[in-house]
Amino acid sequence: SQKIEQNSEALNIQEGKTATLTCNYTNYSPAYLQWYRQDPGRGPVFLLLIRENEKEKRKERLKVTFDTTLKQSLFHITASQPADSATYLCALASGNQFYFGTGTSLTVIP
Amino acid sequence: NAGVTQTPKFRILKIGQSMTLQCTQDMNHNYMYWYRQDPGMGLKLIYYSVGAGITDKGEVPNGYNVSRSTTEDFPLRLELAAPSQTSVYFCASIPGDSLQPQHFGDGTRLSIL
């Protein structure tokens, strides 16, 4: 069956450290993968997109990697800040449809 | 720039009632999506549309209907509300084709009692 799994439901880290979130998938062949941020009571907000032929993408303090052999994407937030506390979702694009992981709740402790 | 607007924000329904969740976007996007988000379950695609007059089922379409008569609007209809449809519903849009980020509304929180 098809699955998208994100590492542990909750991740707590100290301010200034690097947060690493994992997205693993099985039985999908995504053309690209996206990461979103979701705050309580709000809709997801797009952060980064990485194509299947790209290994790494960066945007300011954010970095995404995509390994289609391992079927895994890693999402890094460097120099984390309390304002980075939120739920982060990965989404796979296949055809016209998107498939979301369950999300990882990140808390950055001051 | 409003983006994607969903109404209502909250609603309580009784079992067996019907209602329509509204979604409007002002970005002239061709593709629109309806998702439901249950606690700990991530977003599941209910229906999507790649343009006016065209709709397709997603992962969890049972109990729902959609229509797309204009580019701007993509309403979601619940005909006979059931407790299993208690969820948060999100509408999203993209310009078209792939490699585009989805723009989401802020959701409709629906409880069926």
Summarize the structure in words:
The complex is a heterodimer of chains A (110) and B (113). Chain A is mainly β and 110 residues long. In chain A, 0% of the residues lie in helices and 60% in strands. Chain A is built from no helices and eleven strands. In chain A, the strands form two sheets. In chain A, strands 2, 4, 5, 9, 10 and 11 form a six-stranded mixed sheet that branches. The mean pLDDT of chain A is 92. By secondary structure, chain B is mostly beta strands. In chain B, 0% of the residues lie in helices and 51% in strands. In chain B, strands 2, 4, 5, 6, 9, 10 and 11 form a seven-stranded mixed sheet that branches. Chain B has a four-stranded antiparallel sheet with strand order 1-3-8-7, with no helix packed on it. In chain B, strand 4 and strand 5 form a beta hairpin. The radius of gyration of chain B is 13 Å and the shape is globular. The N and C termini of chain B lie far apart (36 Å). The chains are: A mainly beta (110), B mainly beta (113). Chains A and B meet through strand 4, strand 5, strand 9 and strand 10 of A and strand 4, strand 5 and strand 10 of B.
